[in-house]
């Protein structure tokens, strides 16, 4: 649709405002993989509840907004093997790199972090090659 | 309590933004990565839009000693580009392209993603649990054969 970019921009401003609140009030970097991963590998320490409540907000707001939309379809792959392999790669990869699209992308690049730029260029490159190979050459997605 | 309240507000803004921007739709994410197909530029607008308030927040933070609630602010960003950063980002990117999901949108889609999404999230959490062991291996110097 033609207005997709406008909603992208508005959504982006909301995401960035969320990151700004988390930084200026909680003193923390809003990185989804770090917030989730810290709860998984036990490195969260005394920020455990802060993380859980943050994630509750992430889950709940789409529930509240859904009735405003005619159709909400995330178009999740029906290929179980693809889902499991992709999930393992995303989970292990973001924790090894210590960040994902929100941490390295939004929060890292906006403070001109070298690591943020290096990570973002790398995962966009790998994702582009991935879609090229898996969609256009192998036809699995 | 104030920390929890602002964490909830931040998470709510993040979840709303991911949902409204269309980033919880895997076809839009894969469309952005599909340079050789029907390329979709939406993600660039989301990323650009998100960086505006975030850049302002970093400028404000640079003038502060602590956060508004008195917690310490993050240290200066590291400039070390190591194997973990590049290899991890490569693995993440391949998975991102395969499923069209990264950690934030995967969590934001929990209420409407259905069983397929839950399987992805379960695998993602498993990957996150395994990562510390991979990290230790990558930290070891490469042994000379």
UniProtKB/TrEMBL annotation, chain A:
GO terms for cellular component: plasma membrane. It is found in: Cell inner membrane. The chain crosses the membrane at residues 6-25, 52-70, 76-97, 117-138. Keywords: Cell inner membrane, Cell membrane, Membrane, Transmembrane, Transmembrane helix, Transport. InterPro entries: Sulf_transp_TsuA/YedE. It is a multi-pass membrane protein. It comes from the Bacteria. PANTHER family: INNER MEMBRANE PROTEIN YEDE, SULPHUR TRANSPORT DOMAIN-CONTAINING PROTEIN. Belongs to the TsuA/YedE (TC 9.B.102) family. This is Uncharacterized protein. It comes from Salipiger thiooxidans.
TrEMBL record, chain B:
The chain crosses the membrane at residues 43-64, 85-110, 116-134. This is Sulphur transport domain-containing protein. InterPro entries: DUF6691 (IPR046513). Pfam families: DUF6691 (PF20398). Keywords: Membrane, Transmembrane, Transmembrane helix. The lineage of its organism: Bacteria, Pseudomonadati, Pseudomonadota, Alphaproteobacteria, Rhodobacterales.
